[in-house]
Design a protein that fits this description.
The complex is a heterodimer. Chain A is mainly α. Chain A has five helices and no strands. Chain B folds into four domains: 116 residues, Roll (Ubiquitin-like (UB roll)); 219 residues, Rossmann fold, CATH 3.40.50.740; 198 residues, 3-Layer(aba) Sandwich (Dimethylsulfoxide Reductase, domain 2), CATH 3.40.228.10; 131 residues, Barwin-like endoglucanases, CATH 2.40.40.20. In chain B, strands 13-12-25-24-23-14-15 form a seven-stranded mixed beta sheet, covered by helices on one side. Classes of the chains: A mainly alpha, B alpha/beta.
């Protein structure tokens, strides 16, 4: 993946901070997941999950960690041919 | 005065109840308040005139338009006499003829008789009127005249020749009424009366902003374009659209052969109504500047000399390089960048090439780095990624909130329209860290200047909302009818929290609570309230949140859906709106339809004959990051210059160096092209057909004025490249591209070149529901159905000041220069802004021993550069400011990789820096100079084709 984890973590936490401030926690989690799904290139999502798996999500906020884990089936891309 | 004159009615149109008068035996009904002069012209009767113009209020000084009215004594001026029911008016009689001849005789007695050598010969109202009134002799032999007075040639674009001035006041009135600068006046009395700029200064030294309104208004050669003096009068005129800011002014390009003689603002232009600014009016010479590159060039590496090649070889070479890269590194290893400076048709084709020929969604546009948060924030709240109004809407506004925008510099023609409304009594709130011109000028003063700290927009807007909610100023009926109630109630509770009160926020924003409360009350209760915003809103880590907070305010107060209100993003470049509309973002197809939408995708797949990916591609910063990491290897960049315009310059240039094939299509060897392997010469806006879409969603035609310097219009280059890549494109004219856009984009279904020809311009949505376009959106319902309030929690940027870097740098632009300056730096606009300077408050300067004009170093965590300091109280203590128009200034060497949470729009507006006095350039600047010299030496000696 063409982006270092530090930058992805920072971006994910920023997005998480916005959605974490929304009133409905479950909806916020869905909206966070949808944001990543709709705005991020699959390579970036794959890399972020690789970071999650490799380090347990070091550097990611609690909200992001929870949302990524809870909505992994929606956010993590399906592998496609290169 | 325009060579190809529109009919001038002499005085402006009025809107009163119909009144019928009889003029020269003809009955004519006109609105009450209409002048006799205008009524006569509407009946087809031209009354002689010199001081009257329908772009100016009547003045009644030249006395040429005198008429007779039955039952009344004397000879009233028809321009200042309004119609009254039953009036019987005569515009011709022996007495009137005698009076007019007498008046003309007096004028001509103090006017040079050099018509044959005058630059206005054949295009002079004084000459015309002399003919109309039948002047045959001048009996006077004056002992004193103005004929020997010296010309003022200080302005780079026009001259002022007092010898030819008839003191008709048109220039003075144009400066006041049209431009709103009040730089001109008539000094002296009687014979000594003369037009004076500033305090009897030259035009260049005065506060004149060189908009050209005075030149346009002048009926003689007194104020004349130097280009006309040099080249003579034009032979033909082509109506086209300016390629500078998001106002999108319509111009008549006056041409001789294939050479532009001058650009005259189009009186029928729907965005500008005959006005212009120093850029569009005068700064078009870059199109034939010797720096233009007129032939394709290729090279294997960036340290090799460029090799000039044919178009066929360049296209074949480029296609092979991209194909090889994709074969080696995968389909996603390449991408493209569209430009907000290119036409809709060109942007559409580049994204089509990326999606259909490259087979991925790695396409982005420079709107990423300016208004991407607008698209996101307005889509979420209102349902459409666009501003809600037309520009004329401001003329119905009672309260205007300008936040993070500097219209008199960035969008000058709209700025003039706004100032006109303010002079009529509208109230103004400015939220800006700097004291922009609108805050306090000779004739405009903001009622409230909320001088917030950079980065605290959301906190300020939440505190404004707090006042509106807690003081019962919500338009409950509007909200109940038009908005999602549950989301509104959640938002109401959120902003009502005392932590959002102006008092609680004051420490954060730096804005006195009382000012915030007063501004909120004014916005909510002052009548029609409109918000105008710019990059001071979007280019923050909370850019999208700020846009949503603005939409929240407008919805809560019912200020949406009618003239005079709304949410109005002032787009930076001419086609920011259009490039976004055309599917230039990696997650959206044209018309803002997400790539995951199966119906939209199916429509494009059928039309394009390819399978499209359903996942978003890489944005610009993602592409650059991927290049750093070695997975992104090739980029097709049309009309953009990320090496200068994007933040953290060293990061950008390192990414470009890491790629194997950078293709730049541009007019000049811009900063990015110095890192390119293929240079494809672009066509200026004068050299191609297409359309631009301005900030008010107005699609306007761009018409070819001269042949493309390098033989191809930009869309033709993209077509050739796509064909070489193996994906066939087959268009013979941009109108066919627009037809395809219309067939695939619901908001464009009614758009065609034929309709643009008929209507002049069209504001989208234009479809069966609105066949002639939509000036104001969300009138009866929001595009998304119900408006959605969003919770906008203030989250501080990670960019913090420290003892090491205690100041905040914010960036912006100036009137005379445009964006990266590639165009305006190659014109005489340098007379006003030859270099970028750092604005610093006197206290901060004194602390550092800095004097005005000293060279200072600006150091951030991203890099260091140096420029000269200007000491000014425009900026607050603790804040410094600069522009980014000159590459050697390196303003973006300092800006960081911080960006908006939703869109990655860079946080240009907040960078922690330290300033210190220096004697030498920064290391980056020395390296920049050396690299630039190397790259210029690698250029072949190409002569610009003489048009």
């Amino acid at each position: 993946m063409g982006m270092n984890a530090t930058q992805l973590i920072k971006m994910a936490n920023q997005i998480g901070a916005f959605f974490a401030s929304q009133p409905d926690p479950l909806q916020a989690r869905d909206d966070f997941a949808q944001h990543l799904k709709r705005q991020w290139d699959p390579q970036m999502r794959t890399a972020l999950y690789a970071h999650l798996d490799a380090s347990g999500g070091e550097g990611l906020s609690a909200f992001v960690l929870e949302a990524m884990r809870a909505r992994r089936d929606q956010v993590e891309p399906v592998a496609r041919p290169a | 005065m325009a060579l190809f004159r529109e009919l001038d009615y002499g005085t402006p149109a009025r809107t009163g109840a119909p009144v019928t008068v009889e003029i020269d035996g003809q009955a004519i009904s006109v609105p009450a308040g209409t002048s006799l002069m205008r009524a006569a012209q509407e009946a087809g009767i031209a009354v002689p005139k010199l001081c009257a113009s329908d772009s100016l209020e009547p003045f009644g000084s030249c006395r040429l338009c005198v008429v007779e009215i039955e039952g009344r004594r004397g000879f009233p001026a028809s321009c200042t006499t309004p119609v009254e029911a039953g009036m019987k008016v005569h515009t011709q009689s022996p007495k009137l003829a005698e009076l007019r001849r007498g008046t003309m005789e007096l004028y001509i007695s103090d006017h040079p008789l050099d018509c044959l050598t005058c630059s206005a010969n054949g295009n002079c109202e004084l000459q015309d009127m002399a003919g109309v009134v039948g002047l045959r002799e001048v009996r006077y032999d004056p002992v004193k005249t103005h004929l020997a007075e010296a010309k003022d040639e200080s302005n780079p674009y026009f001259t002022f020749d007092p010898a030819k001035c008839i003191v008709c006041n048109r220039c003075v009135r144009a400066c006041e009424e049209v431009q709103g600068t009040f730089a001109l006046t008539i000094t002296g009395r009687g014979f000594d009366s003369q037009v004076s700029a500033g305090q009897n200064e030259t035009f260049l030294d005065s506060e004149c902003v060189s908009c050209g309104a005075c030149v346009n208004a002048c009926p003689t050669a007194t104020l004349m374009e130097k280009s006309v003096i040099e080249k003579g009068q034009a032979e033909r005129s082509v109506t086209t659209t300016c390629a500078y800011c998001g106002v999108g002014c319509s111009f008549k390009a006056e041409i001789k052969g294939n050479e532009v003689v001058r650009m005259v603002p189009n009186k029928d232009g729907h965005a500008n109504h005959g006005h212009a600014c120093v850029k569009g009016r005068f700064a078009w010479g870059y199109a034939t500047h010797p720096d233009r590159i007129a032939a394709p060039m290729i090279r294997e590496s960036i340290h090799e000399p460029w090799r000039t090649v044919s178009w066929d070889e360049a296209i074949a070479y480029t296609a092979k390089r991209f194909k090889d890269i994709q074969a080696q590194y995968g389909r996603d290893s390449v991408g493209g960048l569209t430009s907000s400076r290119c036409t809709n048709e060109e942007a559409y084709l580049v994204q089509k090439l990326v999606r259909a020929a490259f087979g991925n969604n790695n396409v982005d546009t420079c709107a990423r780095v300016c208004h991407s948060p607008t698209g996101y924030g307005l889509k979420v709240t209102l349902g459409e990624s666009a501003g809600t109004q037309d520009f004329d809407s401001v003329l119905a506004a009672d309260v205007v909130l300008v936040i993070g925008a500097n219209p008199t510099d960035g969008h000058p023609v709209f700025g003039s329209q706004l100032k006109r409304r303010l002079r009529e009594g509208a109230k103004l709130i400015v939220a800006d860290p700097r004291g922009i011109d609108l805050v306090r000028g000779p004739h405009v003063k903001a009622d409230h200047h909320l001088q917030l700290r950079p980065g605290s927009n959301v906190a300020l807007l939440n505190s404004l909302a707090h006042v509106i909610v807690s003081e019962g100023l919500v338009d409950e009926a509007f909200v109940a009818e038009r908005c999602e109630i549950e989301a509104f109630e959640q938002w109401r509770a959120f902003v009502a929290d005392p932590r959002h009160s102006p008092e609680a926020m004051e420490e954060l924003t730096g804005v006195p609570a009382a000012s915030v409360r007063a501004a909120a009350r004014l916005y909510a209760t002052g009548g029609n309230a409109a918000i105008y915003y710019g990059l001071g809103v979007t280019e923050h880590s909370q850019g999208s949140s700020t846009v949503m907070a603005i939409a929240n305010l407008a919805m809560a107060t019912g200020n949406i859906g009618r003239p005079g209100v709304g949410v109005n993003p002032l787009r930076g470049q001419n086609n920011v709106q259009g490039s976004c509309d055309m599917g230039s973002f990696p997650h959206e197809l044209p018309g803002y339809r997400h790539v995951s939408d199966p119906l939209a995708r199916a429509q494009f797949e059928q039309a394009w004959g390819v399978t499209l990916l359903d996942e978003p591609g890489l944005r610009i910063p993602n592409m650059l990051a991927a290049a750093h990491a070695g997975t992104f290897k090739g980029m097709y960049i049309q009309g953009e210059d990320p090496a200068q315009s994007d933040p953290d310059t060293q990061h950008v240039t390192d990414a470009l160096k890491a790629m194997e094939c950078v293709v730049v299509q541009d007019l000049f060897l811009n900063e990015t092209a110095k890192y390119a392997h293929v240079f494809l010469p672009g066509a200026s806006f004068l050299e191609k057909n297409g359309t631009f879409t301005n900030a008010e969603r107005r699609i306007s035609p761009v018409r070819k004025v001269m042949p493309a310097l390098a033989g191809k219009e930009d869309w033709e280059v993209t077509v050739a490249l796509s064909n070489a890549l193996g994906y066939p494109m087959n268009y013979s004219h941009p109108s066919q591209i627009m037809d395809e856009i219309a067939s695939l984009t619901p908001t464009f279904t009614g758009v065609s070149y034929a309709k643009l020809e008929r209507l002049g311009s069209i504001q989208w949505p234009c479809n069966d529901a609105a066949p002639e376009g939509t000036p104001i959106m969300h009138e009866d319902a929001f595009v998304r159905g119900k408006g959605r309030f969003m919770i906008t929690e203030y989250i501080a940027t990670e960019e913090r000041t420290s003892r090491k870097r205690p100041l905040i740098l914010t960036t912006g632009r100036i009137l005379s220069q445009y964006n990266v300056g590639a165009q305006t730096r190659r014109t005489a606009n340098g007379a006003w802004h030859a270099e970028d300077r750092l604005e610093i408050h006197p206290v901060d300067a004194e602390d550092r021993g800095i004097n005005d004009g000293d060279w200072v170093s600006i150091n951030s965590r991203a890099g260091e550069t140096a420029m000269r300091a200007t000491i000014t109280e425009r900026v607050q203590p603790g804040i410094v400011y600069t522009t980014f128009h000159h590459p050697e200034s390196g303003a973006n060497v300092i800006t960081t990789d911080n960006s908006d949470w939703a869109t990655n729009c860079p946080e240009y507006k907040v960078t922690a820096v330290q300033i210190s006095k220096v004697a030498t350039p920064s290391q980056w600047q020395e390296e920049f100079q050396a690299f630039t010299h190397e790259q210029l030496d690698l250029l072949p000696q190409i002569k610009v084709v003489q048009l």
